[in-house]
Specification:
six-stranded mixed β-sheet; alpha+beta; 12 helices
Length: 419
Protein backbone atom coordinates (compact mmCIF):
# COMPACT_ATOMS: atom_id res chain seq x y z
CA UNK A 1 0.00 0.00 0.00
CA UNK A 2 1.23 3.47 -0.84
CA UNK A 3 1.54 5.39 2.40
CA UNK A 4 2.41 9.10 2.39
CA UNK A 5 5.11 10.25 4.76
CA UNK A 6 2.80 12.90 6.23
CA UNK A 7 -0.50 11.10 6.87
CA UNK A 8 -1.96 14.05 8.72
CA UNK A 9 -1.67 16.18 5.58
CA UNK A 10 -1.91 13.76 2.69
CA UNK A 11 -5.33 12.47 1.61
CA UNK A 12 -5.42 8.70 1.77
CA UNK A 13 -5.01 6.73 -1.42
CA UNK A 14 -7.34 4.15 0.07
CA UNK A 15 -10.33 6.49 -0.05
CA UNK A 16 -12.54 5.84 -3.06
CA UNK A 17 -15.57 8.01 -3.63
CA UNK A 18 -16.69 6.35 -6.85
CA UNK A 19 -15.23 2.86 -6.88
CA UNK A 20 -17.09 0.00 -8.52
CA UNK A 21 -15.39 -2.61 -6.35
CA UNK A 22 -14.28 -2.09 -2.75
CA UNK A 23 -10.62 -1.30 -2.24
CA UNK A 24 -9.08 -3.88 0.04
CA UNK A 25 -5.54 -4.02 1.28
CA UNK A 26 -5.36 -7.47 2.80
CA UNK A 27 -5.91 -10.94 1.39
CA UNK A 28 -8.44 -11.91 -1.25
CA UNK A 29 -12.01 -10.96 -0.44
CA UNK A 30 -15.04 -13.17 -1.07
CA UNK A 31 -18.18 -11.22 -1.89
CA UNK A 32 -21.62 -12.79 -2.09
CA UNK A 33 -24.13 -10.82 -4.07
CA UNK A 34 -27.80 -11.40 -4.74
CA UNK A 35 -28.46 -12.24 -8.37
CA UNK A 36 -32.23 -12.32 -8.38
CA UNK A 37 -33.52 -10.42 -11.39
CA UNK A 38 -30.25 -8.57 -11.99
CA UNK A 39 -27.95 -10.90 -13.88
CA UNK A 40 -28.02 -10.90 -17.69
CA UNK A 41 -29.72 -13.81 -19.48
CA UNK A 42 -26.48 -15.70 -20.15
CA UNK A 43 -25.21 -15.34 -16.59
CA UNK A 44 -25.38 -18.08 -13.93
CA UNK A 45 -28.97 -18.63 -12.84
CA UNK A 46 -28.25 -19.38 -9.20
CA UNK A 47 -29.74 -17.12 -6.56
CA UNK A 48 -26.31 -16.17 -5.34
CA UNK A 49 -23.02 -15.63 -7.15
CA UNK A 50 -19.71 -15.93 -5.34
CA UNK A 51 -17.09 -13.48 -6.55
CA UNK A 52 -13.50 -13.79 -5.40
CA UNK A 53 -11.75 -10.43 -5.54
CA UNK A 54 -8.01 -10.27 -5.11
CA UNK A 55 -6.49 -7.61 -2.92
CA UNK A 56 -6.11 -4.26 -4.65
CA UNK A 57 -2.57 -3.11 -5.30
CA UNK A 58 -1.32 0.46 -5.15
CA UNK A 59 2.11 1.91 -6.00
CA UNK A 60 4.77 0.69 -3.56
CA UNK A 61 5.88 2.67 -0.54
CA UNK A 62 7.51 4.84 0.65
CA UNK A 63 6.21 7.94 -1.10
CA UNK A 64 6.63 11.54 -0.04
CA UNK A 65 3.31 13.30 -0.56
CA UNK A 66 3.35 16.78 -2.09
CA UNK A 67 0.23 18.92 -1.73
CA UNK A 68 -1.46 19.19 -5.15
CA UNK A 69 -1.60 22.52 -7.00
CA UNK A 70 -4.91 24.35 -7.28
CA UNK A 71 -7.23 23.30 -10.09
CA UNK A 72 -7.73 26.18 -12.59
CA UNK A 73 -11.16 27.75 -12.10
CA UNK A 74 -12.14 27.26 -15.73
CA UNK A 75 -12.15 23.46 -15.18
CA UNK A 76 -15.52 22.25 -13.90
CA UNK A 77 -16.79 18.87 -12.75
CA UNK A 78 -14.76 16.15 -11.05
CA UNK A 79 -10.97 16.24 -11.36
CA UNK A 80 -8.55 13.42 -10.60
CA UNK A 81 -4.77 13.67 -10.64
CA UNK A 82 -1.76 11.49 -9.94
CA UNK A 83 1.76 12.69 -10.74
CA UNK A 84 4.66 10.69 -9.39
CA UNK A 85 8.43 10.45 -9.70
CA UNK A 86 10.03 7.05 -10.06
CA UNK A 87 13.64 6.49 -9.06
CA UNK A 88 15.72 3.40 -9.60
CA UNK A 89 15.58 1.03 -6.65
CA UNK A 90 17.38 -2.23 -6.09
CA UNK A 91 15.35 -4.12 -8.68
CA UNK A 92 13.02 -1.63 -10.39
CA UNK A 93 11.90 1.96 -10.72
CA UNK A 94 9.59 2.85 -7.84
CA UNK A 95 7.52 5.88 -6.88
CA UNK A 96 9.23 7.92 -4.18
CA UNK A 97 7.53 11.31 -4.50
CA UNK A 98 4.00 12.07 -5.69
CA UNK A 99 1.06 14.43 -5.63
CA UNK A 100 -2.54 13.44 -6.12
CA UNK A 101 -6.14 14.57 -6.09
CA UNK A 102 -9.05 12.09 -5.86
CA UNK A 103 -6.57 9.29 -6.64
CA UNK A 104 -9.01 6.41 -6.13
CA UNK A 105 -12.10 7.92 -7.72
CA UNK A 106 -13.09 6.15 -10.91
CA UNK A 107 -13.25 8.08 -14.19
CA UNK A 108 -13.91 7.10 -17.82
CA UNK A 109 -10.62 6.76 -19.70
CA UNK A 110 -12.02 7.73 -23.11
CA UNK A 111 -9.22 7.34 -25.69
CA UNK A 112 -6.59 7.05 -22.97
CA UNK A 113 -7.46 3.36 -22.89
CA UNK A 114 -5.77 2.98 -26.30
CA UNK A 115 -2.40 2.78 -24.52
CA UNK A 116 -3.50 -0.60 -23.18
CA UNK A 117 -4.46 -1.79 -26.68
CA UNK A 118 -0.96 -0.96 -27.92
CA UNK A 119 0.69 -2.64 -24.94
CA UNK A 120 -1.31 -5.87 -25.34
CA UNK A 121 -0.70 -5.78 -29.09
CA UNK A 122 3.07 -5.68 -28.51
CA UNK A 123 2.77 -8.60 -26.09
CA UNK A 124 0.83 -10.55 -28.72
CA UNK A 125 3.50 -9.80 -31.32
CA UNK A 126 6.19 -11.01 -28.93
CA UNK A 127 4.30 -14.26 -28.27
CA UNK A 128 3.70 -14.87 -31.97
CA UNK A 129 -0.09 -14.61 -31.66
CA UNK A 130 -0.05 -11.52 -33.90
CA UNK A 131 2.22 -11.01 -36.92
CA UNK A 132 3.42 -7.55 -37.89
CA UNK A 133 2.72 -8.46 -41.52
CA UNK A 134 -1.02 -8.91 -40.93
CA UNK A 135 -3.20 -6.50 -42.89
CA UNK A 136 -6.75 -5.33 -42.32
CA UNK A 137 -9.56 -3.67 -44.25
CA UNK A 138 -12.21 -1.24 -43.05
CA UNK A 139 -15.70 -2.72 -43.23
CA UNK A 140 -19.22 -1.68 -42.28
CA UNK A 141 -18.84 -3.89 -39.23
CA UNK A 142 -15.61 -2.39 -37.87
CA UNK A 143 -15.90 1.26 -38.95
CA UNK A 144 -16.27 3.46 -35.86
CA UNK A 145 -16.84 7.14 -35.13
CA UNK A 146 -14.74 9.67 -37.08
CA UNK A 147 -11.94 9.21 -39.55
CA UNK A 148 -10.67 5.76 -40.45
CA UNK A 149 -7.52 4.21 -41.97
CA UNK A 150 -6.90 3.02 -45.51
CA UNK A 151 -7.72 -0.54 -46.49
CA UNK A 152 -4.87 -3.06 -46.40
CA UNK A 153 -3.17 -1.29 -43.47
CA UNK A 154 -0.71 -3.41 -41.51
CA UNK A 155 -0.43 -3.76 -37.74
CA UNK A 156 2.01 -0.91 -37.13
CA UNK A 157 0.18 1.46 -39.48
CA UNK A 158 -2.97 0.92 -37.42
CA UNK A 159 -1.02 1.22 -34.16
CA UNK A 160 0.43 4.57 -35.19
CA UNK A 161 -2.99 5.84 -36.30
CA UNK A 162 -4.49 4.72 -32.99
CA UNK A 163 -2.02 6.71 -30.87
CA UNK A 164 -0.95 9.62 -33.09
CA UNK A 165 -4.41 10.39 -34.51
CA UNK A 166 -6.57 8.59 -31.92
CA UNK A 167 -8.21 6.73 -34.80
CA UNK A 168 -11.19 4.83 -33.40
CA UNK A 169 -11.56 2.33 -36.24
CA UNK A 170 -7.87 1.40 -36.04
CA UNK A 171 -8.30 0.96 -32.29
CA UNK A 172 -11.30 -1.31 -32.63
CA UNK A 173 -9.62 -3.51 -35.25
CA UNK A 174 -6.59 -4.00 -33.00
CA UNK A 175 -8.64 -4.41 -29.81
CA UNK A 176 -10.69 -7.21 -31.37
CA UNK A 177 -7.50 -8.77 -32.75
CA UNK A 178 -6.16 -9.26 -29.20
CA UNK A 179 -9.68 -10.33 -28.12
CA UNK A 180 -12.37 -8.36 -26.36
CA UNK A 181 -11.26 -9.27 -22.84
CA UNK A 182 -7.56 -9.45 -23.76
CA UNK A 183 -6.71 -6.11 -22.16
CA UNK A 184 -8.05 -6.93 -18.72
CA UNK A 185 -5.46 -9.62 -17.99
CA UNK A 186 -2.70 -7.12 -17.24
CA UNK A 187 -5.00 -5.04 -15.04
CA UNK A 188 -5.97 -8.16 -13.09
CA UNK A 189 -2.34 -9.26 -12.75
CA UNK A 190 -1.54 -5.82 -11.34
CA UNK A 191 -4.59 -6.11 -9.03
CA UNK A 192 -6.19 -2.93 -10.30
CA UNK A 193 -9.64 -3.41 -8.79
CA UNK A 194 -11.28 -0.33 -10.27
CA UNK A 195 -9.84 -0.56 -13.79
CA UNK A 196 -12.08 -1.94 -16.56
CA UNK A 197 -10.64 -2.44 -20.07
CA UNK A 198 -13.25 -4.22 -22.12
CA UNK A 199 -15.14 -2.30 -24.82
CA UNK A 200 -13.98 -1.09 -28.25
CA UNK A 201 -15.02 2.47 -29.07
CA UNK A 202 -17.88 1.62 -31.43
CA UNK A 203 -19.22 -0.82 -28.88
CA UNK A 204 -19.70 1.71 -26.08
CA UNK A 205 -20.97 4.36 -28.50
CA UNK A 206 -23.54 1.90 -29.87
CA UNK A 207 -24.97 1.57 -26.37
CA UNK A 208 -24.89 5.33 -25.77
CA UNK A 209 -26.60 5.89 -29.13
CA UNK A 210 -29.52 3.73 -27.96
CA UNK A 211 -28.71 0.96 -30.45
CA UNK A 212 -27.36 -1.60 -27.98
CA UNK A 213 -30.39 -3.84 -27.69
CA UNK A 214 -32.03 -5.29 -24.59
CA UNK A 215 -28.98 -5.01 -22.33
CA UNK A 216 -28.81 -1.23 -22.83
CA UNK A 217 -32.30 0.17 -23.54
CA UNK A 218 -32.27 3.67 -25.02
CA UNK A 219 -34.24 5.28 -22.20
CA UNK A 220 -32.78 3.27 -19.33
CA UNK A 221 -29.05 3.74 -19.77
CA UNK A 222 -28.30 5.05 -16.28
CA UNK A 223 -29.79 1.96 -14.64
CA UNK A 224 -28.46 -0.48 -17.26
CA UNK A 225 -24.89 0.80 -17.13
CA UNK A 226 -24.91 0.86 -13.33
CA UNK A 227 -25.87 -2.82 -13.33
CA UNK A 228 -23.23 -3.58 -15.96
CA UNK A 229 -20.47 -2.03 -13.85
CA UNK A 230 -21.59 -3.94 -10.75
CA UNK A 231 -21.59 -7.40 -12.35
CA UNK A 232 -18.68 -9.82 -11.88
CA UNK A 233 -16.15 -9.62 -14.70
CA UNK A 234 -17.24 -12.88 -16.37
CA UNK A 235 -20.80 -11.57 -16.59
CA UNK A 236 -19.51 -8.24 -17.95
CA UNK A 237 -17.66 -10.13 -20.69
CA UNK A 238 -20.85 -11.92 -21.76
CA UNK A 239 -22.80 -8.67 -21.91
CA UNK A 240 -19.92 -6.93 -23.72
CA UNK A 241 -19.77 -9.74 -26.28
CA UNK A 242 -23.47 -9.36 -27.07
CA UNK A 243 -23.09 -5.59 -27.29
CA UNK A 244 -20.08 -5.94 -29.59
CA UNK A 245 -22.06 -8.19 -31.94
CA UNK A 246 -24.80 -5.56 -32.02
CA UNK A 247 -22.25 -2.80 -32.64
CA UNK A 248 -20.85 -4.56 -35.69
CA UNK A 249 -24.33 -4.56 -37.23
CA UNK A 250 -24.66 -0.78 -36.83
CA UNK A 251 -23.74 1.63 -39.61
CA UNK A 252 -21.20 4.16 -38.32
CA UNK A 253 -23.06 7.13 -39.83
CA UNK A 254 -26.35 6.03 -38.23
CA UNK A 255 -24.55 5.73 -34.92
CA UNK A 256 -23.03 9.20 -35.27
CA UNK A 257 -26.40 10.80 -35.98
CA UNK A 258 -28.00 9.02 -33.04
CA UNK A 259 -25.21 10.22 -30.76
CA UNK A 260 -25.22 13.80 -32.02
CA UNK A 261 -29.00 14.25 -31.78
CA UNK A 262 -29.54 12.01 -28.78
CA UNK A 263 -26.87 11.25 -26.22
CA UNK A 264 -24.57 14.23 -26.89
CA UNK A 265 -27.64 16.50 -26.97
CA UNK A 266 -28.46 15.49 -23.40
CA UNK A 267 -31.57 13.46 -24.16
CA UNK A 268 -30.54 10.78 -21.65
CA UNK A 269 -30.44 13.27 -18.79
CA UNK A 270 -28.25 16.08 -17.57
CA UNK A 271 -24.57 16.30 -16.71
CA UNK A 272 -24.74 13.84 -13.82
CA UNK A 273 -26.61 11.22 -15.86
CA UNK A 274 -24.05 11.43 -18.67
CA UNK A 275 -21.24 11.17 -16.15
CA UNK A 276 -22.69 8.01 -14.60
CA UNK A 277 -23.25 6.39 -17.99
CA UNK A 278 -19.70 7.19 -19.16
CA UNK A 279 -18.13 5.97 -15.93
CA UNK A 280 -20.11 2.74 -15.73
CA UNK A 281 -20.05 1.80 -19.42
CA UNK A 282 -16.79 2.99 -20.96
CA UNK A 283 -13.38 1.66 -20.08
CA UNK A 284 -12.49 3.23 -16.76
CA UNK A 285 -9.80 3.53 -14.10
CA UNK A 286 -8.62 5.73 -11.24
CA UNK A 287 -5.68 8.16 -11.34
CA UNK A 288 -3.63 5.97 -8.98
CA UNK A 289 -4.41 2.72 -10.78
CA UNK A 290 -3.77 4.13 -14.24
CA UNK A 291 -0.44 5.48 -13.00
CA UNK A 292 0.37 1.96 -11.79
CA UNK A 293 -0.59 0.57 -15.20
CA UNK A 294 1.68 3.07 -16.96
CA UNK A 295 4.50 2.30 -14.55
CA UNK A 296 4.24 -1.34 -15.59
CA UNK A 297 3.92 -0.62 -19.31
CA UNK A 298 6.77 1.89 -19.54
CA UNK A 299 9.34 0.68 -17.00
CA UNK A 300 8.32 -2.78 -15.82
CA UNK A 301 6.92 -4.37 -18.94
CA UNK A 302 7.57 -7.96 -19.92
CA UNK A 303 8.13 -7.01 -23.55
CA UNK A 304 11.10 -8.00 -25.69
CA UNK A 305 13.64 -5.28 -26.45
CA UNK A 306 12.16 -4.89 -29.94
CA UNK A 307 8.60 -4.86 -28.60
CA UNK A 308 9.47 -2.29 -25.97
CA UNK A 309 11.13 -0.06 -28.55
CA UNK A 310 8.09 -0.27 -30.83
CA UNK A 311 5.83 0.57 -27.88
CA UNK A 312 7.93 3.58 -26.92
CA UNK A 313 8.26 4.80 -30.52
CA UNK A 314 4.50 4.77 -31.07
CA UNK A 315 3.66 6.30 -27.67
CA UNK A 316 6.07 9.16 -28.44
CA UNK A 317 3.53 10.30 -31.05
CA UNK A 318 0.64 10.66 -28.61
CA UNK A 319 -0.84 14.09 -27.88
CA UNK A 320 0.44 16.08 -24.92
CA UNK A 321 4.15 16.57 -25.53
CA UNK A 322 3.73 20.07 -26.94
CA UNK A 323 1.99 21.29 -23.78
CA UNK A 324 4.71 20.18 -21.36
CA UNK A 325 6.77 22.95 -19.74
CA UNK A 326 9.46 20.82 -18.14
CA UNK A 327 12.63 19.41 -19.74
CA UNK A 328 12.71 15.70 -20.58
CA UNK A 329 14.74 13.22 -22.60
CA UNK A 330 11.97 10.84 -23.70
CA UNK A 331 8.18 11.03 -23.79
CA UNK A 332 5.19 8.77 -24.26
CA UNK A 333 1.60 9.85 -23.77
CA UNK A 334 -2.03 9.80 -24.81
CA UNK A 335 -5.06 12.05 -24.66
CA UNK A 336 -8.72 11.19 -24.39
CA UNK A 337 -11.85 13.25 -24.73
CA UNK A 338 -15.53 12.79 -25.29
CA UNK A 339 -18.59 14.79 -24.25
CA UNK A 340 -17.85 16.39 -20.83
CA UNK A 341 -14.73 14.20 -20.40
CA UNK A 342 -11.03 15.05 -20.80
CA UNK A 343 -8.09 12.82 -19.87
CA UNK A 344 -4.33 13.03 -20.33
CA UNK A 345 -1.58 10.68 -19.24
CA UNK A 346 2.10 10.34 -19.99
CA UNK A 347 5.56 9.12 -19.16
CA UNK A 348 8.77 11.16 -19.08
CA UNK A 349 12.43 10.34 -18.61
CA UNK A 350 14.08 13.30 -16.91
CA UNK A 351 17.53 14.72 -17.58
CA UNK A 352 18.93 12.96 -14.49
CA UNK A 353 17.42 9.59 -15.45
CA UNK A 354 14.37 9.58 -13.18
CA UNK A 355 11.04 8.56 -14.67
CA UNK A 356 7.86 10.56 -14.12
CA UNK A 357 4.25 9.55 -14.75
CA UNK A 358 1.29 11.91 -14.92
CA UNK A 359 -2.42 11.12 -15.04
CA UNK A 360 -5.15 13.76 -15.36
CA UNK A 361 -8.86 12.89 -15.43
CA UNK A 362 -11.91 15.16 -15.65
CA UNK A 363 -15.56 14.23 -16.10
CA UNK A 364 -18.95 15.83 -15.33
CA UNK A 365 -17.71 19.02 -16.99
CA UNK A 366 -20.23 21.78 -17.53
CA UNK A 367 -18.74 22.10 -21.03
CA UNK A 368 -19.83 19.58 -23.63
CA UNK A 369 -16.63 20.15 -25.66
CA UNK A 370 -13.69 19.66 -23.30
CA UNK A 371 -10.64 19.61 -25.56
CA UNK A 372 -10.56 23.44 -25.48
CA UNK A 373 -9.61 23.12 -21.79
CA UNK A 374 -6.34 21.35 -22.65
CA UNK A 375 -4.13 24.40 -21.86
CA UNK A 376 -5.70 24.72 -18.41
CA UNK A 377 -5.39 20.97 -17.80
CA UNK A 378 -1.67 21.22 -18.54
CA UNK A 379 -1.32 24.21 -16.23
CA UNK A 380 -2.27 21.75 -13.48
CA UNK A 381 -0.14 18.91 -14.88
CA UNK A 382 2.95 21.10 -15.32
CA UNK A 383 2.64 22.54 -11.81
CA UNK A 384 2.38 19.02 -10.43
CA UNK A 385 5.36 17.83 -12.49
CA UNK A 386 7.51 20.68 -11.19
CA UNK A 387 6.56 19.81 -7.62
CA UNK A 388 7.78 16.20 -7.83
CA UNK A 389 10.81 16.52 -10.13
CA UNK A 390 14.34 17.24 -8.90
CA UNK A 391 15.26 20.95 -9.05
CA UNK A 392 18.21 20.20 -11.32
CA UNK A 393 15.87 18.44 -13.77
CA UNK A 394 13.89 21.65 -14.21
CA UNK A 395 16.87 23.57 -15.61
CA UNK A 396 17.08 23.31 -19.36
CA UNK A 397 20.66 22.74 -20.54
CA UNK A 398 22.09 25.59 -22.58
CA UNK A 399 22.67 24.64 -26.22
CA UNK A 400 26.34 24.42 -27.14
CA UNK A 401 27.51 26.08 -30.34
CA UNK A 402 29.63 23.91 -32.57
CA UNK A 403 32.49 25.69 -34.37
CA UNK A 404 31.95 26.09 -38.10
CA UNK A 405 34.00 23.63 -40.18
CA UNK A 406 37.13 24.94 -41.90
CA UNK A 407 37.68 24.21 -45.60
CA UNK A 408 40.93 22.52 -46.51
CA UNK A 409 41.62 24.74 -49.51
CA UNK A 410 41.31 28.23 -48.08
CA UNK A 411 41.15 27.80 -44.35
CA UNK A 412 37.99 29.90 -44.37
CA UNK A 413 35.01 28.95 -42.27
CA UNK A 414 32.34 27.18 -44.26
CA UNK A 415 28.89 28.73 -43.90
CA UNK A 416 25.60 27.36 -45.06
CA UNK A 417 23.29 29.30 -47.34
CA UNK A 418 19.92 30.43 -45.97
CA UNK A 419 17.07 27.91 -46.21
Amino acid sequence: MLTPTSPAVAPSLEASSAAVNPVVTGSAQVVRTSATGNLPPSSPSSAEVTVVRRACALPPEPVKFIAPPAVPKVITGRVGLFVGRLTRGQDAFRFDRATWLNPQSQFPLASNYKTSVLYELMRAVDSGDVKLTERFNVTKANQSYGRYPYDNSDVMTLANAMIAWSDNTATDILHRRVELDGLQGTARDLRLCNTRLLLPTKTWWTAQAGLGGADFPKYGLVSATRKFAAYPFDAQVKIASRLDVAAQRVNAEDMRRSLDFGYFAGRNGGVEAMSLIDRNLQNASTPAEWARYLQHAFVGADLSDAGYQRFRDVMNKGKGKGYLRVPFKTYGGKSGNTARVLTYSGFLETLSGDRVIYVYMNDSSQNLITRDETPQAFMLINAALKSVMRPEDLVRPKPTKKPAPVTAATGAKKTSSPR
